UniProtKB/TrEMBL annotation:
It comes from the Bacteria. This is NADH-dependent butanol dehydrogenase A. Its cofactor is Fe cation. Coiled coil: none annotated. InterPro entries: ADH_Fe/GldA (IPR001670), BDH-like (IPR044731). It comes from Vibrio ishigakensis. Gene3D superfamilies: 3.40.50.1970.
Length: 164
């Protein structure tokens, strides 16, 4: 076996009934956007549990993030974040929801045209800040909760986005 050091500033909170602890990880005065894909988070009561855990925080929902999230869909979320002055993002779902939310996090604070944030390959996106985000992983498959990479679909082309 090879020796190695590994550092990843992602905090993982894992285990049964840990969703109730969500309150400890999001600032009390945060205005939270909860982003999700299809209806399974509603159908299985996940959104209700999240709403309960978030307590009195103002919450805005953004659903309908498709598998392989589309640039246009995520730009709708960016517009809402900016208009409503959201200051914390919470992705609820699998890799596509997490990837799309990562884009929203840095696109919402960017000064440049949003399409210019794409097409950097695996080089860092040229932004100086991003909104804080958390993930409630309902489908752990892609590892998106553990890295800074994301993928968006623009027209018919899948584009990586990388945030340092």
């Amino acid at each position: 076996m090879q020796n190695f050091d590994f550092y990843n500033p992602t905090q993982i909170v894992f285990g049964q009934d840990r969703l109730a602890e969500l309150d400890k990880h999001i600032p009390q005065n945060a205005k939270v956007m909860v982003l999700y894909g299809g209806g399974s988070v509603k159908k299985f009561g996940t959104l209700d549990k999240i709403a309960s855990a978030l307590g009195s925080r103002e919450v805005i929902e953004f659903g309908g993030i498709e598998p392989n999230p589309k640039f246009d869909t995520m730009m709708k979320a960016v517009e809402i974040v900016q208009a409503e002055k959201v200051d914390f993002l919470l992705a609820v779902g699998g890799g596509s929801v997490m990837d799309g939310t990562k884009f929203v996090a840095f696109a919402s604070t960017a000064d440049s045209e949003h399409h210019t944030l794409l097409f950097h390959g695996f080089n860092p996106v040229p932004v100086s800040e991003a909104l804080p985000l958390g993930c409630v992983v309902t489908l752990p498959a892609t590892g998106s909760e553990m890295n800074h990479l994301g993928w968006l679909l623009i027209m018919t082309r899948s584009i990586p986005s990388c945030r340092p």
